[in-house]
């Protein structure tokens, strides 16, 4: 569920990012854009016994991510974290973290992570991918190239138009 489509950006997500999260990310993640977060993508994910049970090892399309466990009743489904995405999987040890209802985890978007399967119930999570156009205009965090940009609605993928973009590379703005 994309929260901007339900009208949550202006009255909830933007003030949350600007007033409360950015002061934290400025202190915790200044080297990866935490000081200059200027857009986001916020959504809710659901894990259910008859649908998705887990989420495989991945990194986010974000400079910093907030993951809040919203609840329902569920068993298992802990999160696990490895190293940053540049570290080979063979050289990584993962750490399991219990993600308790009403608690949030703030982490770098490029930090590899996943969700183990729930064994019963239903789990909902609020995810906010926070983005810094100052960082991603230099290098797309998904394809590792300098982006060539096309117009998009809303925050798109957090890029802003700038004249030095190379025309032969492109990044999807969805």
UniProtKB/TrEMBL annotation:
Domain Fe2OG dioxygenase residues, every copy: 38-132
Indicate yes or no for the key word Transferase: no
Q: Which PROSITE patterns match?
A: FE2OG_OXY
Q: Which InterPro entries match?
A: Oxoglu/Fe-dep_dioxygenase_dom
Q: What are the alphabetically sorted keywords of the record?
A: Vitamin C
Q: What is this protein called?
A: 2-oxoglutarate and iron-dependent oxygenase domain-containing protein 2
């Amino acid at each position: 569920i994309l929260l901007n489509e339900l009208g949550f950006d202006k009255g909830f997500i933007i003030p949350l990012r600007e007033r409360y999260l950015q002061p934290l990310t400025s202190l915790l993640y200044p080297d990866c854009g935490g000081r200059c977060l200027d857009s986001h993508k916020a959504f809710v994910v659901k894990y259910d016994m008859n649908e998705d049970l887990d989420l495989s090892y991945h990194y986010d399309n974000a400079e910093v991510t907030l993951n809040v466990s919203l609840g329902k009743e569920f068993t298992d489904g802990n999160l696990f974290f490895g190293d940053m995405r540049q570290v080979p999987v063979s050289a990584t040890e993962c750490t399991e973290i219990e993600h308790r209802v009403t608690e949030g985890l703030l982490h770098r978007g490029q930090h590899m992570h996943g969700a183990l399967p729930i064994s019963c119930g239903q789990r909902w999570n609020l995810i906010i991918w926070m983005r810094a156009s100052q960082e991603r205009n230099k290098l797309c965090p998904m394809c590792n190239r300098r982006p060539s940009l096309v117009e998009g609605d809303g925050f798109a993928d957090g890029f802003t138009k700038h004249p030095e973009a190379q025309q032969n590379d492109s990044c999807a703005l969805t």
